[in-house]
Amino acid sequence: MELVNTKQVQEAINSFVNKEVYIHLETTNGAYASHRNQSFFSAGAYIRNAKVQYEIGKITGKGPYRVGLKINLGWIYAEGITHFEIDELGRLLLAGHDNEGKLAVALEISPTPFE
Amino acid sequence: MEKERHVLVVFPHPDDEAFGVSGTIATHIKNGTPVTYACLTLGEMGRNMGNPPFTNRENLPKIRKAELKEAARALGIQDLRMLGYRDKTVEFEDEEKLADVMSGLIDELNPSLIITFYPGYAVHPDHDATGAAVVRAAARLPEAARPTLHCVAFSNDCIEKLGEADIINDITPVAEKKLAAIKAHRSQTEQMFADVSEKLKNQDPQIMVWINNERFWTYKFD
């Protein structure tokens, strides 16, 4: 993955507008956060292969970035995005990594279902 | 360490075996005991991507699968089973069906010893769910036919609730194999290795005790 280039990411987001796409979205503190620090409130969420269409998608902010997708009946968004990649399957992979290189958030848009 | 007929190791993530169990595995293999390692997931939800990132969410499972095979090779494990579950979802599977899979392994392999996590004392929900499935499967057998269960526990309350571990295996003779297995899980352990490499080189007593002793709690069925 590379550091976000907003122009390239925005172009990739635009290429999926009004098309059927599959979404992977996750946020996580890691399964050990509350084990290492018992006062830490661990929370996360995960959805894989949500089939949606969006009419608007944007990357905003000065980095780490925010990405929002306006879908037919609602919204999808992620914040803390630092890196991106357009992989060999034409999927837009977005992720936010902390200073230690640990993934904290991921938002991925794919024209085909994720494995 | 007692000579076993067959050892079945059941963990949910590649590298779960590395720190606390790989020396025990290597010792059984050295003793000529067949070892089967059933690993439920490919650690798809691992968070360690590196800075700068060396991989991404979609490629990580491929890397971890290769690392798991390499760790098994380093330990001499001939029978590695990847069960195809998904990281962080094990606890949401149907408990009876998951136990059926464990019963299938037990019926097929007839192990005298199973090594897994101690349900309720293993911190990660996948660890607890995996241990619980093994316990459920073993409990289906008549007491005389049950394999012994050696469980790994490391929750903050495990010693308070379970007492001290009753099995401590000194794995010093196979420490090199253990280190090779830990190193094989490079995406997960490289950073940690960098932190302790100096201590390893100097045979730091605390690190050597940590590396050379593997602790288990024998599961008590009630």
From TrEMBL, chain A:
Entry-linked Pfam families: DUF1806
UniProt xrefs under SUPFAM superfamilies: Hypothetical protein YojF (SSF89442)
Superkingdom of origin organism: Bacteria
Name assigned to this protein: YojF family protein
Source organism of this protein record: Neobacillus rhizophilus
TrEMBL record, chain B:
Required cofactor(s): Zn(2+)
InterPro entries given in the database record: BshB2, GlcNAc_PI_deacetylase-related, LmbE-like_dom_sf
An example Gene Ontology molecular-function term: hydrolase activity, acting on carbon-nitrogen (but not peptide) bonds, in linear amides
Protein name (Swiss-Prot/TrEMBL): Bacillithiol biosynthesis deacetylase BshB2
